Amino acid sequence: xxxxxxxxxxxxxxxxxxxxxxxxxxxxxxxxxxxxxxxxxxxxxxxxxxxxxxxxxxxxxxxxxxxxxxxxxxxxxxxxxxxxxxxxxxxxxxxxxxxxxxxxxxxxxxxxxxxxxxxxxxxxxxxxxxxxxxxxxxxxxxxxxxxxxxxxxxxxxxxxxxxxxxxxxxxxxxxxxxxxxxxxxxxxxxxxxxxxxxxxxxxxxxxxxxxxxxx
Length: 215
Known about the structure:
This protein has 215 residues and is an alpha/beta fold. Helices cover 46% and strands 8% of the residues.
């Protein structure tokens, strides 16, 4: 009987030079390509390091205030407020008061509060009253009213502090959306727990008062 012969396998040849190049590549891998870190994420990493390993259990009032000072920030008035006549900046500021997504992108809008800054804490309701349109009229946006009101308040303070209302953009406010990293649950917990300390560190409280604020 005949024995069937299988086709011989083709073994790829490899020269010494090829082997050496492969060995060198294996022993010396290419360095990892660095991943770009946004300004917001860089600042958040610094804040995470500040609270790492800390606990608020048993913390003294002085310790709480010192740690809160490291998390206390201010956002320039010109980024969250605008006069009606400046359509471009007004629309941008109005979008700030409209968006409610939980991201860290807006954290870079604010900066760590400095000793010579005047920072006022803003309290408000993110959502308009249910009957907003029936009372204010169709087409009157809640976010637009907030944008204009922040500008008006900043001008009042600029008149008192600088004797120049045109410097309203130099004012700074603490607003949760820009001064707390909205996408970091751990830092949110710390910042919410320090609201009383933030109020103590601020130079005043501003309430954007709607008719449902106290309900």
